[in-house]
Amino acid sequence: MSNVPIRPNVLGMTPYSPGKPIDEVKRELGLDRVIKLASNENPLGPSPKAVAAIKEAADQIHLYPDGSAFLLREALANHYGLPMKQIIVGNGSDELIHLLGMVFLGAETDEVVVGYPSFVRYDASAYLANCKLVRVPLNDEMRLDLPAMAAVVNENTRLVFIANPNNPTGTIVFEDELRNFLAAIPSSVVVVLDEAYFEFADGTPGFPNSLDFIRSHPNVVGMRTFSKTYGLAGIRVGYAFVSDEISDAFDRAREPFNVNLIGQAAAKAALGDTDHLRQTVELNKRGLDRMEKAFVELGAKPFKSYANFIMADLGRPARPVFEALLQKGLITRSGDVLGMPNCLRVSVGTDEEVGIFIEELTKILG
After folding, report:
1. Which of 28, 70, 215, 247 is deepest in the core (most CB within 10 A)?
2. How many domains is the chain partitioned into structurally?
3. Boundary of a domain, candidates 207, 236, 271
4. DSSP state string for 112-174
5. What domain range is 355 assigned to?
6. Whole-prediction pTM value?
């Protein structure tokens, strides 16, 4: 045993558990066909415009990227009607979550409020800062319980994370609930609206948009990503809407060149590809409807999802079902690693992939 002084709060963290890679499953199980429905990736792949931009930018990778990501931030500002100063970008939403912890957490008495279960990287911001993590269970509808979250906010609360839609359940909170929540807590508490799956839920009656809140609430941060609807998970580009004050703090804390040259070019191009976005959302709606219907017919209880995945309570431990699907070349997510051992989470695939999943699930549960 060495005497290397690793901080105890770091050793208390659980490493992130991603979905199994396709090649690994092929090697382990000797399979030729493996379908990954575990990581909420875009089954249509990246925007063709993004791919073209990547190829065009490839011969420039010997140069450092624009440290301010000017062209990407300009495109985002024009797209959303915000001043560029209020747009920040990062190496995926993960980096933005990490930076939020660095900027706002600094004392052991500081507190971070999260729903449970929700996206696990929120927890990491608290652990890394060695401050207190306050988990508030979801309500009976498997939605974030905003009144209960407001009730635990106190003078030590620094950050509240609200994933909308929530991961892993896919459920949402509504605009009136969010307004009531913001009215119930001090304006000194930073509220992070993580809208990684925003485009899938956009248009749902009563679904809130962080842009409607940041103009009137300087303590609100709206966070989105190019990993989901835009199909750029592999090059890691996230962005956020913030006040001028928070933007300045992020610029001080972030790494130089935190979004690479390829990522900046691809994200800017993908933002303008409305056809790819429309096709992605339409495909996702078809897949959700089919999987929800199948789960119900098989006696499971799916939660109403507004994201690009669906979670269902199988009424029994999900791990054996996950393993059985894996043997058939279908990678899903067992709820035991997400705090919900009887639940299975499945990402929406292509029409063909969804059909194969339903067929194999029916053999297991039917």
Report:
1. 247
2. 2
3. 271
4. EEEEESS-THHHHHHHHHT-EEEEEE--TTSS--HHHHHHH--TTEEEEEEESS-TTT-----
5. 8-46+275-365
6. 0.95
